[in-house]
Amino acid sequence: MLLLNQHHDHRKALDGIDAETLGLKAAEEVERFLAYRGNHAPTPLHSLAVLSSELGVGAIHMKDEGFRLGLGSFKALGGSYAVIRLVLEEASRRLGRPVDVAELPMSEVRSIASGMTVACATDGNHGRSVAQGAQLVGAEAVIFVHSGVSDERVAAIARFGARMIRVEGTYDDSVAEAARVASEKGWTVVSDTSWPGYERIPGLVMQGYTAMVREALRQLPETPTHVFVQAGVGGVAAAVAAHFALVFGDRRPTFIVVEPARAACLFETARAGYPVKIAHGEPTVMAMLECYEPSLIAWRVLSRTADGFMIVDEEDAIAAMNRLARPVGKDPAIVAGESGGAGLAGLIRATADPEIRAALHLDETSRIFIINTEGATDPERYAELVGMRPDDVVLHTDGAET
């Protein structure tokens, strides 16, 4: 199902703070910070030429975030970056002078960081990034996870030294509990979603994601005509859409937000015209996208920069995972987690529906950009859904652009 953006702010300029947070200068600063990360390397961009021919479009390029900073997800760019920024700001305040990222190893900076505790709620990937960022700077991390987060994902976070707290209920319940406990304890919440009065830190998290777009724009052979990006609370979709809008203005690509049908809070927000919290129903296989209330910053951005909102079913996501793992011809094999291929699932559904094709002007000249937002962050679940272990999915370079 496709819902075109009918909001009165559609295609209007971004708010000043959002333009500053998600624009070119901010992205360049994120990339400067990344240069100080020992395991930083640009993630690959793959050309899916055979699939594009099958779907009747000109080209499909997929940015593969399964390789990002050893964490297997684009989230590695956001939470850890925000933690580092917050530590540097506190060190600057305490030392009475500007403190740059190059000074993170200094004993006086690490001493300040050791007295700080960061906290967040997570479905898995964001918490891992926050925990890794805390470990990098020597701060403490407390991560709240809801009852649906697998033990494997909890263990993957805990290995960075984070203290883990289980919360009954949904992701949104864990967000509320993290905010409550952090307020009582004097901890700093590093959330990837925002609410009234809490926007700056989620803005920093989103800012981290812009580095991914800068890389992609250097790698792409041509500017895309269409972008399909999946969404939970909407942070990555908003960051990508905003950066494309700020770089290309009126020439920007058509931007489509893709969500699970079982957790389509942005779709329903777009239908209502204002942020809404939807009811919790049956869990979605797209666990990293299972969110029932949008980030206020994300909606503010997407109300201006998204052109349409789509929902996909469980079988769509699983089919996309399997297609990427078992490509045809010279298309590369790609390991995509349950949520990683959701953007592709949206594209496949769109091209199969004549009305959606026409509404989005998808044809044989269309150049599509999509993102594999995560690799197999839960290898057992991946093997269950794909019938292969992620290590058995051989990444072919034939036909791939890196």
Q: N-to-C terminal Cα separation, in Å?
A: 33 Å
Number of H- or I-type helical stretches: 16
Side-by-side strand order of the widest sheet? 1-10-9-8-11-3-2
Helix fraction by DSSP (H/I, runs of at least 4): 40-55%
Q: Could you give a short account of the major beta sheet?
A: 7 strands, mixed
Give the overall shape.
globular
* Average pLDDT for all residues: 95
Task: Find the CATH topology of the largest domain.
Answer: Rossmann fold
Output the CATH class name of the largest domain: Alpha Beta
Corresponding CATH architecture of the largest domain: 3-Layer(aba) Sandwich
As residue ranges, the low-confidence spans are 396-402
How many β strands by DSSP? 11
Question: Strand percentage, roughly?
Answer: 5-15%
Supply the helix-strand structural class.
alpha/beta
GO molecular function: diaminopropionate ammonia-lyase activity; pyridoxal phosphate binding
Pfam families: PALP
Cofactor: pyridoxal 5'-phosphate
Organism: Microvirga guangxiensis
Describe what you observe in this structure.
- The protein is α/β, with parallel strands linked by helices and 402 residues long.
- Helix content is 44%, strand content 14%.
- It is built from 16 helices and eleven strands.
- The chain has a seven-stranded mixed beta sheet with strand order 1-10-9-8-11-3-2, with helices on both faces. A four-stranded parallel beta sheet has the order 6-5-4-7, sandwiched between helices.
- Strand 8, helix 10 (235-248) and strand 9 form a beta-alpha-beta unit.
- The relative contact order is 0.17.
